[in-house]
Design a protein that fits this description.
It is built from eleven helices and 13 strands. By secondary structure, it is α/β, with parallel strands linked by helices. The protein has a single domain, classed as UDP-N-acetylmuramoyl-L-alanine:D-glutamate ligase (3-Layer(aba) Sandwich).
């Protein structure tokens, strides 16, 4: 692979984020930022010094220039962000305490739902080491679902790694839809991220971790990461060998998109020559630091902070 390749290209939605550490009914001020699962993956990898491209459709509304300026400052390649005549989505997140979280979405008929096969540039995809998308991207529209599949097909045809996270949420899709998205994309997936709390229970009727891993390896998945809040860590299976990496910290304020931060850090690490166990350790640190703040992206850490811990601390 040449040095000018992207480490990672992600495909998905962008949303405006309004966050507060008070209850929404009490908050007089909400902090504006931005989020979206595939965007968090992209920024998390970029803040670790990866070369990252982001593919989306952006709404031509009052937030357009703010978002474009923010992504440019992050250093994302946004040459394949298309501006369309629609609104950007919004979500609000409140975290008055660890056990008291409110989450509100406004994402119907939003600009990213216009994503289509026409937005998937074959040469752009071929110039990446890894391509990433999620079940949330698939859920935006039938066209966006087709776009994800086409991007993964191009990647597989050209020996490029593909990574996928169902990222199931009952707010966004039904278990039946999530399983349909999953079944469609799994034959094209090399690296799979799943949550034992949400994904595995909603998509499979399998309780045993061992049986889930066997089922997925039988499907041809090379690397499987199962995030387990119950076990307080990550099960990493690569070539039929399973390792356990604990959460970096239990000092958690807000877990919004910490799983996405994990994915971005993990994929950065794989693209830069770390093995899956090392990648999971780096990603656990990244996600742990991110979860000590409020919101999706603004608390995502940078390279020096993460790697200082990775090189000096055992956990």
């Amino acid at each position: 692979m040449t040095d000018n390749k992207f480490d990672l290209i992600t495909i998905g939605e962008s949303l405006i984020e309004f966050s507060t550490n008070q209850k929404l009914e009490d908050a007089e001020c909400l902090h504006k930022y931005y989020g979206g699962d595939s965007l968090v993956v992209a920024v998390a990898a970029k803040r670790l010094n990866a070369k990252v491209g982001f593919i989306t459709c952006l709404g031509d509304d009052s937030f357009k220039d703010y978002l474009l300026s923010s992504w440019n400052k992050e250093g994302l390649d946004i040459s394949h962000v298309k501006v369309v005549n629609d609104q950007n989505g919004i979500y609000m997140v409140s975290r008055a305490s660890v056990d008291d979280k409110e989450f509100v979405y406004y994402r119907k008929k939003i600009a990213p739902a216009k994503l289509s096969i026409d937005d998937i540039d074959e040469e752009y995809i071929k110039n990446s080491k890894i391509v990433y998308a999620s079940g949330i991207t698939q859920s935006l529209s039938l066209n966006s679902r087709e776009a994800v599949k086409r991007a993964f097909e191009i990647a597989k045809e050209n020996g490029i790694l593909t990574a996928y996270d169902p990222n199931y949420s009952s707010i966004i899709s039904s278990p039946e839809d999530a399983k349909e998205y999953f079944d469609e994309i799994i034959p094209l997936t090399d690296i799979l991220f799943m949550s034992s709390k949400y994904d595995t229970k909603s998509i499979f009727e399998i309780e045993s971790l061992e049986n889930i891993v066997k089922h997925l390896t039988d499907c041809g998945i090379q690397t499987i990461v199962i995030k387990s809040s119950k076990d307080k860590g990550y099960f990493v299976n690569n070539q039929c060998n399973t390792s356990f990496i604990p959460f970096y910290t239990e000092n958690i304020i807000d877990t919004t998109s910490s799983g996405d931060a994990f994915n971005g850090a993990f994929l950065y690490s794989i693209a830069n020559g770390y093995n899956p166990v090392e990648a999971a350790k780096i990603a656990s640190i990244d996600a742990g630091l991110q979860a000590q703040g409020i919101g999706a992206i603004k608390s995502t850490p940078y390279h020096d902070e993460v790697f200082k811990i990775f090189k000096t601390e055992e956990f």
